[in-house]
Write a structure and sequence with these properties.
Length: about 450
C-alpha cells in the first residue's frame, strides 16, 4: 500500500507521521484558531481576578475570619494550576484571608489520588509546602456530607471541606466536554468533589440513545443537574477558569460567578475550537493532543470529532496515553470486536443501555455510563486506536475499539472498510477541538 501523502500530528514533544493509503482524499486539516498565551500568565490571571464577572473581586472583601477552600483540577488535566495559584492567593491575602485558614482540595472525582510528585507539579513546590492540601476521595464515606437530592434524582454527597468553607474558589479550565458541552464552572464541585454514587448518577443524566454526545452544546441535562447539586451547598463559589490554546497554554481567564463566568468562557471558546465540516467523511483521523494523560482522557478525541464521520465510516484515533490506561475500566468480559459490533447493529440504539446494565450489573454506575457511550460510538462507526505506549492487547480487553501499536496495520485495517477513494478529515488537536456540521 503506497502512501500518497503523510500527515504530521503533534505527539508529545515530537511529531507522529501518518502515511495515508493511496487514493484517500484529505478534505481538510482542521485546527483551532490560533490564540497566543500572554507573556506573563500570572499577571494576566491577576487582571481577570481584579475584574470578575458578576462577582466582587476577592481582594475587595473582608476575608479575615473566612475559611477558604481552593479546589483545583487533578493530575489528569493539563491546566497549569501552579502558574495561576500565586495570583489567586495574592488576591485572597489582599482581601484579608489568612494562610492558616486556606486549604487546597484536588478534585479527583473517581480518578485515583494524585501522587505527591503530581501534586507538586499541579500546585507548585512552594504552595504545596506552605498550605494544607488533600486529594478528594469519592469512596470515603466519612469524608462526605449529604446535601439532599436534585430534582432529577441525583443524591448529592460532597466533600465535607466544602460544607465547612465560607468561600470556595475553583481553579481549572473550560474545555470541550462530551456530556456537558463544555467543562469548567461548578463541575469542580460535582462531579470533582462528590461521592461515587453522586458522580455516577450525575453522569447518567447524559445517557440518551439519540443524543449521547453533547460536545459543544450550549447546555446539557448533566450540566443543569450538577449546577443544582452544587447549589445545595448554599455557598458562594468563585471560579478562575482558563481557556487553553492548542499547545495547552492558558490564553484567557474567566473569573467570578461560577455559572456566568463559565458561560462566558464557553461562548468564547466555542468560536475557537468548534470546527465546522461541510460534509461527513468516510474516515476521520483524530489526535488526542493536548489531552494526552491516559486512555480515558486521550480517547475523548473520538467523541469530540465523531460527527465529522458518516455513520458506518471509520474513526482513527492517535492517542498518546502518557500514563497508559489510567482509570479506564477493564470489563470482566467482552465479545470479539466484529461480533460486538454486529450485535450492536442488530439490537439498535434503544437497547444498548439495557445491554450495558445487564453486563455490568453490580458494578459502579460510572462504568455503565462509560460502557454506554463507547458502545453507542461503536454501533455508529468502526473505531480504531493507535498508541506506542498502550499494551498491544488493550483493544481485546476493553472491547470497544481495535488497538494498534503499528500505524501501517491500523491503516490497512481501515482501508478494507472504506472506498478506495475514501474522504478524510484530519483533526491534529482532537483532544481540545470538536466538529460541527455546517
Amino acid at each position: 500500500m503506497q502512501p500518497t501523502q503523510t500527515i504530521e500530528l503533534p505527539w508529545g514533544a515530537q511529531t507522529l507521521s501518518v502515511p495515508l493509503p493511496a487514493g484517500w482524499r484529505v478534505l481538510g486539516r482542521l485546527e483551532p484558531r490560533r490564540m497566543d498565551a500572554p507573556a506573563d500568565v500570572p499577571v494576566a490571571c491577576a487582571r481577570a481576578l481584579a475584574d470578575p464577572i458578576e462577582a466582587v473581586p476577592l481582594q475587595h472583601r473582608d476575608l479575615a475570619d473566612c475559611r477558604v477552600v481552593i479546589v483545583t483540577d487533578d493530575h489528569s488535566r493539563p491546566t497549569p494550576v501552579a502558574e495561576l495559584l500565586p495570583a489567586v492567593l495574592d488576591a485572597l491575602v489582599q482581601g484579608g484571608a489568612r494562610d492558616e485558614k486556606i486549604e487546597i482540595l484536588l478534585a479527583n472525582g473517581v480518578h485515583r489520588a494524585s501522587r505527591p510528585e503530581e501534586v507538586e507539579r499541579k500546585l507548585g513546590r512552594d504552595v504545596m509546602a506552605c498550605f494544607r492540601w488533600r486529594c478528594h476521595d469519592a469512596h470515603d464515606d466519612a469524608s462526605l456530607a449529604d446535601l439532599g437530592t436534585t430534582s432529577r434524582g441525583t443524591h448529592v454527597l460532597v466533600n465535607r471541606l466544602l460544607v465547612d468553607a465560607d468561600l470556595i474558589v475553583c481553579v481549572g479550565a473550560v474545555e470541550p466536554h462530551l456530556l456537558l458541552g463544555f467543562g469548567g464552572g461548578l463541575k469542580m464541585i460535582v462531579p470533582g468533589c462528590a461521592g461515587n454514587e453522586t458522580i455516577g448518577r450525575n453522569h447518567m443524566q447524559g445517557v440518551d440513545p439519540d443524543n449521547f454526545d453533547f460536545v459543544g452544546a450550549d447546555i446539557s441535562t448533566m450540566r443543569l443537574d450538577l449546577e443544582q447539586a452544587a447549589g445545595l451547598l448554599n455557598k458562594e463559589v468563585f471560579i478562575v477558569n482558563a481557556v487553553m490554546n492548542a499547545e495547552g497554554r492558558p490564553t484567557r481567564f474567566f473569573c467570578g460567578d461560577a455559572v456566568e463566568a463559565q458561560r462566558a468562557g464557553a461562548a468564547f471558546l466555542r468560536d475557537i475550537v468548534g470546527l465546522p465540516v461541510s460534509r461527513q467523511a468516510d474516515v476521520v483521523l483524530t489526535n488526542s493532543h493536548p489531552m494526552d494523560a491516559d486512555l480515558r482522557q486521550s480517547a475523548k478525541c473520538l467523541g469530540n470529532t465523531l460527527y465529522a464521520c458518516r455513520p458506518g465510516g471509520v474513526m482513527l484515533g492517535c492517542v498518546r496515553c502518557e500514563h497508559g490506561l489510567g482509570e479506564m475500566p477493564i470489563p470482566k468480559r467482552t465479545l470479539p470486536y466484529p461480533l460486538l459490533r454486529l450485535l450492536l447493529k442488530v439490537i439498535g440504539k434503544e437497547r444498548v443501555l439495557p445491554l450495558v446494565k445487564r453486563i455490568k450489573q453490580g458494578e459502579p454506575v460510572e462504568e455503565i455510563f462509560v460502557g454506554h457511550f463507547g458502545l453507542q460510538m461503536l454501533r455508529r462507526n468502526h473505531l480504531a486506536l493507535f498508541s506506542d505506549i498502550l499494551p498491544p492487547d488493550t483493544g481485546k480487553k476493553v472491547g470497544l475499539a481495535r488497538t494498534y501499536d503499528d500505524l501501517g496495520q491500523m491503516l490497512q485495517w481501515a482501508a478494507r472498510r472504506v472506498p478506495a477513494d475514501a474522504s478524510v478529515w484530519v483533526f491534529p488537536f482532537g483532544g481540545a477541538t470538536y466538529a460541527t456540521l455546517s
